[in-house]
């Protein structure tokens, strides 16, 4: 197996918790590559059908995994997705689940134009900590960390923590 010089990081959590904002800034600060799974699927049309209820295309998970597998084995990738059990466990060195208080999240998703069932289901997903539980099932518990993401101060603190972790990982592996 090839040894990686840079770690792979998964940023996951309910839509609206701040994965994209954090991931892009993290890429700037660490030099790692940011990959948004939604965008990747859109660009490659990696879809398999259409979800009428949520009015969105359904991700073709196998094709997404195939598309990224080689890049992941090289390391240095920050993956952003609102789910986590579709990826091979071996891909990630650490998993961060961003968490947002539900009133805060409601406001953010409403601003994004979510309404009705889509808005309610996403807020409920956060209340039931669905993605956190999915992450704890899919990955070794020691590598799964929750990060509060309510304020700009939280964002800055999270960035600092992950940058520090990344630097340490690279010292330990090079
Ligand atoms: P996601 O990629 O998880 O869907 P996002 O990065 O697009 O989320 O963020 C959604 C909105 O919330 C966006 O307007 C930025 C804002 N936001 C994200 N994290 C925040 C934080 N920690 N404090 C305040 N606002 C935040």
Word description of this protein:
The chain is an alpha/beta fold and 174 residues long. The chain has one domain (8-168): Rossmann fold (3-Layer(aba) Sandwich). Helix content is 50%, strand content 19%. The chain has helices spanning 19-30, 37-44, 61-74, 102-111, 116-127, 130-138, 152-173, and strands spanning 9-12, 33-36, 47-51, 56-59, 77-81, 94-99, 144-148. The strands form 2 sheets. A 5-stranded parallel β-sheet has the order 2-5-1-6-7, sandwiched between helices. A two-stranded antiparallel sheet has the order 3-4. Helix 1 packs across helix 7 and helix 4 (102-111) runs antiparallel to helix 5 (116-127). The mean pLDDT is 96. Bound molecules: 2'-deoxyadenosine-5'-diphosphate (DAT). Residues 13, 15-21, 108, 149-152, 154-155 line the site of 2'-deoxyadenosine-5'-diphosphate. Residues 111-121 are annotated as: LID. It catalyses: AMP + ATP = 2 ADP; ATP + H2O = ADP + phosphate + H(+). This is Adenylate kinase isoenzyme 6. Monomer and homodimer. Interacts with small ribosomal subunit protein uS11. Not a structural component of 43S pre-ribosomes, but transiently interacts with them by binding to uS11. Interacts with COIL (via C-terminus). ATP binds at residues 16, 18-21, 112.
